[in-house]
C-alpha cells in the first residue's frame, strides 16, 4: 500500500487537508465552485493549479517508482538525498514516518539535505526558507514556490518513492490558487484589494490572497517599469537584465488575475473615502489597502551631487549602467553598507580601481561588530579595494559635465569616473503625511503583529514599517530585509481575510561578496558582546551576538548550517544563553 502520512493522496502534488476540501468533485467531474463572501456578496470561483503542478499521474509514462533504501537505513531525524534515476528526492524520517519532497530549495537551489530538520519542517541552509515535510508547503521565506511532495510506500522492509518525472526535474510546486470572477464586470477605478508597491511584500500578499481562495479584484501598482523582480540581485549580480530576475512571468499575473500597474505613483491616500490618488490624477477606490512602498535611497548632500555618473542603485537599469560605465574605469563607492560593499565586490574584476569611502572605522561595525568587520575589510583589501575610512565626501568635481574627482573632507582627492552612493535609505512614506495613518518620527509606518495600521482595512509591510518582534519581547523594530518582506506580505494577506494570524518569524538575511556569503539570523540591535568560534583570518567562523546573558543574533561564514540551526532554536521560542556558546 502507498504510505502517505496524514493525508491520503492519489497524485504527486499533495493538497493539505484545508485545501483538499476545496477540491471535492461535483457530479459532472469538475471541481465544485466555492463561495467566498466579500462585502456581503457571494463570489464564486474555481481553484486552479499552476501548469507545473498539474496532475502528473494522468500520464503513466511520466511516473517513476524506485526502491531507495532499507527501512533501517534512516534513523529518526535523518534526511537523505536519493536518486530515482531521472531525478532526486529528499527522503526524511521523523517520528517513525517517512516523507519525500523535492531536494532543492526553490529559491536558489540549495541542497536541503544540508539544511536543518526540526519539528516537521526543513530549513534551507543558505537563506533560511522553511518547508513542511508533510505537504512540501513553504512556511518561511525567501522564495515563492513550495516543494513537490512524493508518495512513499514500505514493502518488505524497503522504502519506495513514486514520483512524477516532471516534478523531479522542476523541483518546485506553485500552491493552488483561485482566479478572479468576471473581471469584465469591474469598474476600472475600483478594486477590492489595492497593493501599493510591487516588491516581495506586495507580491506575496497578492499570491497568498489567491492561495486562500480570494476571488475578487487585486490591483498592484508600482513606480517601477517592471513586474516584481529579485531586488537583492541588483547589487549582487549587477549585469542581470530585468527579464532574468523577474519573480513571476507575465503569464502568471494573467492566469491568476493579479493586475500590475507599472510606472504609477500614488501621491495621496484618502482613508475616509478609501481612495488612492495617483500622481497623474487618476483615482482608485479600494476596500482593503496594503502599503508596501519600501525605501528611498538617501542622496549625498555635497556640492556636485546632481552630476552625471553619480548613482543610487534603485533599478536594474541603474545596475546595468554602472557596470557598463565602470568597466576599466575608476569607481568610488560612498558608504560601506550592504549595498556599497556588494557593489564594490562585484565591480573589482571589471573596474580599473575601486575605492570605498566610509564614516566608521570598519565596515559593518554596527551590524556585525568590529572584529567581523575587520575580517571582511581585509578580504576586500586582498581583492584590490582601497578604503578611505572615518571621512566623508565634501565635493564631487566635474569635467565637461561628467564626474572627474571625489574630494574627501580629509583633503584627499580620488579620481572617479563613476560614483555609487550607498549611504542608507529612508522609508518611502512621504505621500502618507496628511493621511491619518500612524507614522513614527523616522517616517516608518507603525503596524501591529497582524501588519495592521491604526486605520481599519489598511495594512503595511516590508522595509517601510516598524512592527513588534516576538524574538525581542515585542520591541517595535524595522527589519529592511528580503525574507521579512515576504513574511509581512503573507501575514497582511491572511489578516485581510480575518485569519487573526500574528507574525512570529525570525529575521534571516545574507550578503554575498567574492563568491563568499555571510548568513545572519536574529536581531542584534544593541548587542553588547560578540562570541566568536572558528577562525576569522580564514573566514571560517560563527559569531554569536549577545545582549546581557542572551544570544540575540548569529552570523557565519563557511560554517553552514549553523545560522539555520540557531534560527530554528529561536523560532521554537527557546533562549540561547551566552554560556551555551562560549
TrEMBL record:
Q: Which domain of life is it from?
A: Eukaryota
Q: Which GO terms describe its biological process?
A: execution phase of apoptosis
**GO CC list:** mitochondrion
Q: Which UniProt keywords apply?
A: 2Fe-2S, Apoptosis, Electron transport, FAD, Flavoprotein, Iron, Iron-sulfur, Metal-binding, Mitochondrion, Oxidoreductase, Transport
The GO terms describing molecular function are: 2 iron, 2 sulfur cluster binding; metal ion binding; oxidoreductase activity, acting on NAD(P)H
Q: Does the keyword Oxidoreductase apply?
A: yes
Instruction: Tell me where it mainly resides.
Output: mitochondrion
What job does this protein perform? Induces apoptosis through a caspase dependent pathway. Reduces mitochondrial membrane potential.
Please state what the protein is called: Apoptosis-inducing factor 3
Q: What is the lineage of its organism?
A: Eukaryota, Metazoa, Chordata, Craniata, Vertebrata
Amino acid at each position: 500500500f502507498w504510505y502517505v502520512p496524514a493525508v491520503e493522496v492519489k497524485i504527486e502534488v499533495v493538497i493539505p487537508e484545508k485545501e483538499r476540501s476545496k477540491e471535492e468533485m461535483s457530479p459532472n467531474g469538475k471541481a465544485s465552485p466555492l463561495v467566498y463572501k466579500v462585502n456581503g456578496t457571494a463570489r464564486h470561483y474555481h481553484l486552479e493549479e499552476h501548469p507545473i503542478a498539474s496532475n502528473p499521474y494522468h500520464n503513466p509514462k511520466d511516473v517513476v517508482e524506485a526502491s531507495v533504501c532499507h527501512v533501517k537505513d534512516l534513523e529518526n531525524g535523518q534526511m537523505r538525498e536519493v536518486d530515482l534515476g531521472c531525478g532526486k528526492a529528499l527522503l526524511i524520517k521523523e517520528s517513525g514516518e517517512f516523507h519525500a519532497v523535492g531536494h532543492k530549495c526553490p529559491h536558489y537551489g540549495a541542497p536541503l539535505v544540508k539544511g536543518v530538520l526540526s519539528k516537521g519542517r526543513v530549513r534551507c541552509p543558505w537563506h533560511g526558507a522553511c518547508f513542511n515535510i508533510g505537504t512540501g508547503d513553504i512556511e518561511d521565506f525567501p522564495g515563492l514556490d513550495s516543494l513537490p511532495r512524493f508518495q512513499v510506500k514500505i514493502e518488505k522492509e524497503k522504502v519506495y518513492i513514486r514520483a512524477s518525472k516532471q516534478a523531479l526535474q522542476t523541483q518546485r510546486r506553485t500552491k493552488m490558487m483561485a482566479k478572479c470572477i468576471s473581471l469584465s464586470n469591474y469598474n476600472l477605478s475600483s478594486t477590492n484589494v489595492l497593493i501599493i508597491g510591487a516588491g516581495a511584500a506586495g507580491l506575496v500578499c497578492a499570491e497568498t490572497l489567491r492561495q486562500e481562495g480570494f476571488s475578487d479584484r487585486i490591483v498592484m501598482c508600482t513606480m517601477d517599469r517592471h513586474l516584481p523582480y529579485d531586488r537583492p540581485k541588483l547589487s549582487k549580480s549587477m549585469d542581470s537584465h530585468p527579464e532574468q530576475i523577474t519573480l513571476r512571468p507575465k503569464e502568471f499575473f494573467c492566469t491568476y488575475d493579479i493586475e500590475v500597474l507599472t510606472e504609477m505613483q500614488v501621491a495621496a491616500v484618502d482613508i475616509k473615502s478609501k481612495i488612492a490618488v495617483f500622481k497623474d490624477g487618476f483615482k482608485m477606490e479600494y476596500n482593503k489597502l496594503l502599503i508596501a512602498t519600501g525605501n528611498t535611497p538617501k542622496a549625498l548632500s555635497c556640492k556636485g551631487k546632481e552630476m552625471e555618473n553619480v548613482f543610487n542603485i534603485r533599478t536594474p537599469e541603474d545596475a546595468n549602467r554602472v557596470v557598463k560605465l565602470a568597466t576599466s574605469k575608476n569607481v568610488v563607492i560612498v558608504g560601506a553598507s550592504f549595498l556599497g560593499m556588494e557593489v564594490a565586490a562585484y565591480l573589482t574584476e571589471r573596474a580599473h580601481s575601486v575605492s570605498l569611502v566610509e564614516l566608521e572605522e570598519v565596515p559593518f561595525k554596527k551590524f556585525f561588530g568590529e572584529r567581523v568587520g575587520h575580517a571582511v575589510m581585509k578580504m576586500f583589501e586582498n581583492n584590490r579595494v582601497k578604503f578611505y575610512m572615518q571621512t566623508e565626501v565634501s565635493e564631487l568635481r566635474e569635467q565637461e559635465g561628467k564626474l572627474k574627482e571625489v574630494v574627501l573632507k580629509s583633503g584627499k582627492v580620488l579620481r572617479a569616473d563613476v560614483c555609487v552612493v550607498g549611504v542608507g535609505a529612508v522609508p518611502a512614506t512621504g505621500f502618507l503625511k496628511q493621511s491619518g495613518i500612524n507614522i513614527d518620527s523616522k517616517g516608518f509606518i507603525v503596524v501591529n503583529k497582524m501588519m495592521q495600521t491604526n486605520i481599519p482595512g489598511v495594512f503595511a509591510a516590508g522595509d517601510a514599517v516598524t512592527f513588534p518582534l516576538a524574538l525581542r519581547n515585542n520591541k517595535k523594530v524595522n527589519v529592511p530585509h528580503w525574507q521579512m518582506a515576504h513574511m509581512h506580505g503573507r501575514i497582511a494577506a491572511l489578516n485581510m481575510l480575518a485569519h487573526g494570524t500574528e507574525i512570529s518569524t525570525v529575521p534571516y538575511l545574507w550578503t554575498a561578496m567574492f563568491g563568499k556569503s555571510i548568513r545572519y539570523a536574529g536581531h542584534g540591535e544593541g548587542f553588547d558582546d560578540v562570541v566568536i568560534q572558528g577562525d576569522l583570518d580564514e573566514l571560517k567562523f560563527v559569531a554569536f551576538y549577545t545582549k546581557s546573558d542572551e544570544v540575540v543574533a548569529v552570523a557565519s561564514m563557511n560554517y553552514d548550517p549553523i545560522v539555520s540551526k540557531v534560527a530554528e532554536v529561536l523560532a521554537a521560542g527557546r533562549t540561547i544563553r551566552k554560556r551555551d556558546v562560549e
